[in-house]
Amino acid sequence: MGDVIEIKNLRVEYPGRNRAEPARLAVNGLTLSVRAGEVFGFLGPNGAGKTTTMNVLLGFVNATGGDAYLFGVNVREPIARQRIGYLPELTYYYKFLTAEELLRFYARIFGLPRAETDRRIDSLLKLVELDAVRRRPIKTYSKGMQQRVGLAQALINNPELLILDEPTSGLDPLGRMKVREIIQRLKQEGKTVFFSSHELGEVETVCDRVAIISQGQLREEGRVSDLVAKYRCDLERVFLKVIGYEPQPAN
Amino acid sequence: MTTASPYAWLGLLMTVSFSLACTLQPRVVSWRERAGSGDLIKILLGEGRRLFANHFFIRADVYFHSGYYPSIFDQADKPAPTALAGAHDHDAHTADEHERQMAFLGEPRDWIERFGRHFRITEHTHLTGGGEREILPWLKLSAELDPQRVQTYTVAAYWLRTRLGKVTEARDFLREGLRNNPDSYEILFELGRLYHENEHDAVRARNLWELALRRWNEREGRKKAGEQDLFALEQIAVRLARLEEAEGHLARAIQLLELARRASPHPAALDAQIAELRAKMSTAPGK
Amino acid sequence: MNKVLAIAGVVVKELYRRKDFYVLFVLTALITMLLGAVNFFNDPKIVRYLKEVCLLLIWVSTLVIAVVTAARQIPAEKENRTIFPLLAKPVTRWQVILGKFAGCWLAAGIALLLFYLFFAVISESRGGTAAAGAPVTAAASGPHDHDAHAEEAHSDDAGAAAPARRALLTYVEALWLHWMMLAVVIAMVLLGSLIFAMPASNATIQFIVIAGILLLGEHLNKVALRQVEPLQTILQVLYFAIPHLEWYDLRDFIIYDHPPVALWACALATLYAAVYALVFLLAAWLVFRRKGLTT
Q1: What percent of chain C shows pLDDT beyond 70?
Q2: C or N terminus of chain A, fewer CB within 10 Å?
Q3: What does the pLDDT average to over A80-85?
C-alpha cells in the first residue's frame, strides 16, 4: 500500500492584517509522507506550523503552494476525507444533541446504512464508556466525557487514517492511558495514526516515526529509535537540539 | 460577623417596597391629573398620541375601503380620500369626486409594478350590509388616544346608528365625546340627528340643534369670513328649518333658511325653498 | 442530498430545543386572545382588527425566528468550533451552506404552519371566513346603494361552500408565499453572516433592510421620479435589484376576504423567490469557500 499522507513542498502564507503588516509564512516548503499502518508523531514548538499543516490536510485552509494528498486524493477534494477520522484538540460538539444523535448525524454524513450505524454507535459508546449517558445532551457532559465523545465521532466511519490534534491535552493520567490504549489497538488493526503532541514521553512510547518541524520547515524525520541513536539522548533532548534550543547551565 | 438571615433580607425588601409604593402613589395620581387622563398609555405617549389617533382614524378608512387605499407616496400630489368621514356628509361629497380621489393607481410604470399588482388589492369597494362594524375598533382606539378629535365621535356615531342599528351605543359614544368636548357643535348636531332620525324626538333634536347653533356662533363667529365652518352652519340651519317647518313655525323656518343661504355655496336652491315657505305663509289661514 | 438533509436536521433540532419559538408563539397567542376579549360597542362579530393584529404578530415572529436563526448558524459553528469536526468529514462547503439554508427554511416553515393554524382557529372561532365575512359593494355604484348591491354581491356565490373554499385557498396561498419570502430572507441573512463579523450586527442590518423593502420597495420607482440625477438612477437600479418581498405579503387578502391570487402569479412569485435565494446562496458559497478556518 502507498503513502496514506503525502505532502509535497507545502507552502502556506497568511496575509497581513493591513498593508503595513507583511505576510506571515506559516509553512515553508514542507515535504513529508506517512505510510500505511504506522503511528506517526508530528512534533514542533508552538507556532511551528503543525496546526496549519493539519488544517491543510483537513481542508480547513487552502495551501498557497505545493500539494497534499490523502490516500492519493488531493486534499481539496471532499472525498479525500471519506476514510479519515479527526479528533480536534479542543473538543466542542453540538451541545443540544445527545451523544447518540451526534454520532448518528456524523454517520449520515458518511453515508452509512442505518443498521451499520446502529451497530457502530453501540460499540463505540461502549468503547468510550458513554453508553449509560447516550441520551443525555452533551452540554451536561464533563470535559473528559466530551473528549470521549470526540473520540467516538472520530471513529464512527471506521477510518483507515486517524488524525489527532493533541489527543491527551487536558486529560488526567487515566484518560491519557485510555487514549494510548486506543492508539495501540488501532495500530494492531492496521490503521494509520497521525497525531501531534507535546507529551514526548507518550510519543516515544507509541510512535513508529516522528517528524520535527520548526518555523514552518521540516528539521528532522525518522524512526524514534534511529533519532535517539543518532543524537545519543532521549527524544526530548533530540527535540530541543533539532529546534536549536540550548539549555542554560544551572549556577 | 454573621451573615444576615435570608428572612431578614426578605423582610427588609418588603418594607422598602411598601414604603416606595406609599411614597409614589400620590405622585402617580398627580401625573394622571396633569395628563388629563387616567390612561398609562396616554401618559407615556404624550402628544404623540395624536399622531397615533390620526393613524387609527385613517386605518378605519382603509378598512372601509377593504384595503384599497393610497399610500403616502400615492397621496403626494393629491389630497387624502375621505369616504369614511364624507359618507355621512353625503350632500357635499359626491360619488364622482370620491372616485377621482380613489383612482390613484394609474397605469403601471414597469413590469415589477405590473406584476406586483397581483398581490395587492386594486378593487375600489366599500363595506356595506353590516360590514361597517369592522371600522369600529379603530375609531374607538382613535377616540381613546385623542378625545379632542371630534370627527371620530361623529363618524362612528353615524355608522353605528344608520348602518348597524346600534342607536344606544351611538348615543353613548356621542355623549362621551360631548363630555370631552363640551363646546363641540359638530357632536351636538350629530346627537340632534340621532334624536330626530332614530328616536323621533323632535323636542330634544331642536334643543340640541339650537345649542349647536349657539356654540357655532360662539366659536366660529369670532373668526374671519374665509375661515368659518360654513358647511356646518348650513347643515344645522337647514335641519332646524325643516324641523320648524314640520312643527308649523314657518317664520322661524324662513329665518333659519336665510341664515343657511348666507353660508351655502348654492343659494339658488335655498332661495326657492324660502320663496315656497313665504308663499305657504301668505296662504295659511290665521298666520 | 443526504448530507444536506442531515445538516438541516441538526438545525431544526436546535431551533425546537431553544426557547425562541415557544416564547414568540405564546406571546402571539396571549396578545391575540387579550385583544379578542375587548368589547367594541357590544358587537361580538367584529373580527378584522383581530386578524390584522394576529397576522402582524405572526409576521414579526417568523421574521425574528428566521433572521436570528440564520444569522447565528455559521458564526456559532465557528465560535463553538463545531465547524471543524463537520468540515473534517467528506462534506463540501456548498453542502454546509445548503444544509444550513434547508434547516433554517424548514424550521421556519414548521413555525409558520403552527402560527397559521393558530390564526385559523382564532379566525374561525370569530366566524371570520367568508361565511360571515363583511359584504362589500363596488364603489362605482356609489356608497349609498348598499342594500341592493350587498344582495347582488352575494347572489353569485353558490351557498357558503364556495366562499369557504376561496378563503381556504387564500390562506394556503398566504402561507406558501410567506414561506417563499422567508427563503429569500434566510439566504440573504446566511450571506450576511459570512460578511459581517458579529451575528448581532448582521441581524440588525438585515431587519432594517427587510423592513425597508417591505415598506418602501414598491414605491422606490415613484420616489426616484421625483429626484435629480444621479440619485434617480441609483434609486431605479435599487428598485430593480432588490427582491420585492412585499409581493409575498397577502395579509390584506385574508383580512379583507379578498379573492385569492391567480395561481400562475403565485407560481411566478415562487420562481422569483427561488432565483433570489439561489443567488444569495451562491454568493454565500463563494465567500465561504475562500475563508480559511484555523483551529
Answers
A1: 88
A2: C
A3: 93
H-helix or E-strand containing A105? helix A99-109
Q: Cα separation of A242 and A231, whole Å?
A: 10
Q: Which residue of A has its CA nearest to C77?
A: A94
Chains touching chain C through at least 3 C-beta pairs below 8 angstroms are A, B
Long-range contacts of C214-220 (CB under 8 A, 24+ apart): C214/C245, C214/C246, C214/C249, C217/C242, C217/C244, C217/C245, C217/C246, C218/B112, C218/B113, C218/B116, C218/B120, C218/C244, C218/C246, C219/B71, C219/B73
Q: CB count, 10 Å around CB of A149?
A: 25
Euclidean distance between CA atoms A202 and B40, whole angstroms: 72
Sign of CA dihedral B66, B72, B73, B76: positive
- Residue pointed to by grid coordinates 456559532: C76
Query: For the ranges A183-187, B18-22, B104-108, B151-155, which has the lowest average pLDDT?
Result: B104-108
Taking only residues 218 to 277 of chain C, the set having a beta carbon closer than 8 angstroms to any beta carbon of chain B reads: 218-219, 221-223, 226, 239-240, 244, 246-250, 252-253, 255-258, 261-262, 265, 268-269
The CA distance from B129 to C45, in Å, is 13
A115: cell is 443498521
Torsion sign (Cα): A148, A151, A157, A159: negative
Query: Which of C6, C293, C295 comes nearest A109 by C-beta?
Result: C6
Mean pLDDT, residues B146-170: 94
In sign, the C-alpha dihedral spanning C69, C72, C78, C82 is negative
Query: Nearest Cβ partner of C146 from B115, B129, B169?
Result: B129
Q: Give chain A's mean pLDDT.
A: 88
Q: With 0-12 CB in 10 A as exposed, 13-18 as middle and 19+ as buried, what is A222?
A: middle
pLDDT at C26 over 90: yes
- Rounded CA separation B191/B101 (Å): 29
- CB contact, 8 Å: C41 with chain B? yes
Q: Report the neighbours of B using a cutoff of 3 or more CB pairs below 8 angstroms.
A: C
Q: Which helix (H) or strand (E) holds B214?
A: helix B202-220
CA distances from B76 to A171, B36, B73 (A): 72, 35, 5
Mean pLDDT of C119-141: 66
Chain C residue numbers with beta carbons less than 8 Å from the beta carbon of A96 are: 13-14, 17-18
Distance of alpha carbon B277 from alpha carbon B245, whole angstroms:
8
pLDDT higher than threshold 90 for residue A203 = no
Q: How many angstroms separate the most distant Cα atoms in chain C? A: 76
pLDDT of residue A132: 92
| Contacts within 8 Å (CB) and 24+ apart, A131-134 | A133/A99, A134/A98, A134/A99, A134/A100
